[in-house]
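wait is this the right file?? whatever heres the structure
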């Protein structure tokens, strides 16, 4: 294995630029992600979030700038980067015909890991999919699919995981399930970079939040730091109304075992 530094940020991005023909998508993107933290890259449709993730996961080459992941340079040490990461793309990559367990066993075998069955069973348990493990994925809800997708990307214990819009198209319950799974990753010491268009998702999950806008990182900080960018909150006395999400979750039931067939399906927004 190539030498790498164990200290410093696990993801290090400086001056990243990328254009598609005339379209300048990234115009000098800089950020760092600390080891074992959750970093959220926020941005509107077309801001360039997937482009950043694809460059960091070596699927795409930047036009300029540097990026290091787990101490390896994405341009010159791509194979080492790939060994250190997993990518869960914007569109679920699970095989519909296979069962959840078969999907996991397949990936474990492809990665030449011994005892693929045990690895699959461990991951099913970790993502509360044990009962559904034997069923075809085509019968899974969107949230179950997403959790399986994330479970698949953990095979081989990569230290860094990229989640591109992990909850887009999911209903509030399924989103909570996926959030739980992502929190578990961070607690286990995995570094997570996720992209999202949902402000509340970043608020809920991220240690640091960066907003990608017009090709650059507009702001980057903890939630508290970002909130300080706005004028101090005025003290007002109002009755606190439940949010729509509170109402939805109270009526539908926020706790665990949601009905399995009624979640919204994955959809490109
Ligand atoms: N292969 C490509 N060829 C040409 N243009 C592209 C290509 N890939 C992305 N783009 C353009 O680059 C811009 C950034 O795309 P990107 O997919 O990175 O955005 P995003 O922030 O992930 O958006 P979304 O929230 O919709 O997923 C968009 O304008 C998109 O149309
Ligand atoms: Mg995208």
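ok assuming it is, sequence goes like this
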């Amino acid at each position: 294995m190539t030498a790498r530094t164990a200290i410093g940020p696990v993801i290090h991005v400086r001056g990243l630029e990328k254009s598609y023909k005339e379209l300048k998508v990234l115009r000098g993107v800089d950020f760092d992600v600390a080891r074992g933290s959750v970093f959220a890259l926020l941005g509107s449709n077309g801001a360039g979030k997937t482009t950043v993730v694809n460059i960091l996961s070596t699927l795409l080459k930047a036009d300029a700038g540097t990026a290091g992941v787990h101490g390896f340079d994405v341009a010159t040490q791509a194979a080492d980067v790939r060994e250190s990461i997993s990518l869960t793309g914007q569109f679920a990559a699970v095989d519909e015909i296979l069962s959840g367990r078969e999907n996991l066993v397949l990936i474990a075998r492809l990665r030449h890991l011994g005892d693929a069955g045990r690895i699959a069973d461990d991951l099913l348990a970790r993502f509360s999919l044990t009962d559904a493990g034997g069923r075809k994925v085509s019968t899974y809800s969107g949230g179950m699919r997403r959790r399986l997708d994330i479970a698949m990307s953990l095979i081989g214990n990569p230290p860094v995981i990229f989640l591109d819009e992990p909850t887009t198209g999911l209903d509030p319950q399924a989103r909570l399930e996926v959030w739980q799974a992502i929190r578990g990753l961070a607690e286990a010491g995995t570094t997570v970079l996720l992209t999202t268009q949902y402000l509340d998702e970043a608020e809920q999950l991220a240690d640091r939040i960066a907003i990608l806008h017009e090709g650059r990182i507009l702001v980057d900080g903890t939630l508290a730091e970002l909130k300080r960018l706005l004028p101090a909150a005025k003290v007002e006395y109002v009755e606190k109304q439940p949010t729509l999400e509170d109402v939805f979750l109270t009526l539908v039931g926020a706790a665990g075992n949601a009905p399995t067939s009624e979640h919204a399906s994955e959809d490109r927004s």
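The two ends are 40 Å apart (CA to CA). so i think its the right one actually
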